[in-house]
Design a protein that fits this description.
- Its EC number is 2.4.2.9.
- It holds the Pfam family UPRTase.
- InterPro entries: PRTase-like, PRTase_dom.
- Helix content is 29%, strand content 28%.
- By secondary structure, it is α/β, with parallel strands linked by helices.
- It has a single domain, classed as Rossmann fold, CATH 3.40.50.2020.
- The strands form three sheets. Strands 1, 4, 5, 6, 7, 8, 9, 10 and 11 form a nine-stranded mixed β-sheet that branches. Strands 2-3 form a two-stranded antiparallel sheet. Strands 12-13 form a two-stranded antiparallel sheet.
- Helix 4 links the parallel strand 9 and strand 10.
- The protein is globular and about 60 Å long.
Amino acid sequence: MTIMATEAAGITNDTRNDTRNDTVHLLPQTRQLRALHTIIRDRNCDLERFVTTSGRIIRQLVETALDLLPFEPSGVQTPVGQTYHGLRPAKPICGVPVVRAGESMEHELRAMSPGVRIGKILIQRDKVTKLPRLYYSALPADIDRHSVLLLDPMLATGGTALAAIEVLLAHGVAEDDIVFVTLLSAPEGIDAVHARHPNLRIVTSAIEERLNENAYMIPGIGDFGDRYFGTDVPR
């Protein structure tokens, strides 16, 4: 696994920082970002603060992911009659959240790109086989002409991510046009994705220490979807 980062959450100077390329983009581990993580990882964080704080991190992730997409030259006339030689996206953008947790990231993408098109993929783990199973997908007919941000806040074992990537590839999306955007990543999940798709880009705000025997990330955050949507409240 190779990363572009300053320091992973829970990871300091190990071999994962020795070789870096363009496949894993870890947000700079600033004190501000670590403070935001401290809030949302706290088991006593209330719903309102969890939603607001995670939204601030997600916006940073989306901004980073958007910067990875292809751009082309675009000149505009400024108010003083001069030409500014700028840039514009080379392809239209489509966001594809993995339902349900990935929908937490949809709002921030829409806030930055109000006209963005949104697809949906629903994948759940089969209770018998323990393998990811596709239950539903709704994607733009011309998604193969788009740059796609695949949105899911948790990358643990990598099974769901791989299944979602296969759905996009089956609809004609080029691997180079996919950026996987995730809040937390386990090393095992990153390795699983890159074992099959070595050049697929991943944007994350933290790389965890490991998965435990139940495939939960350590130190972790719990079930992000339940906490974000308020369905983790005990009876």
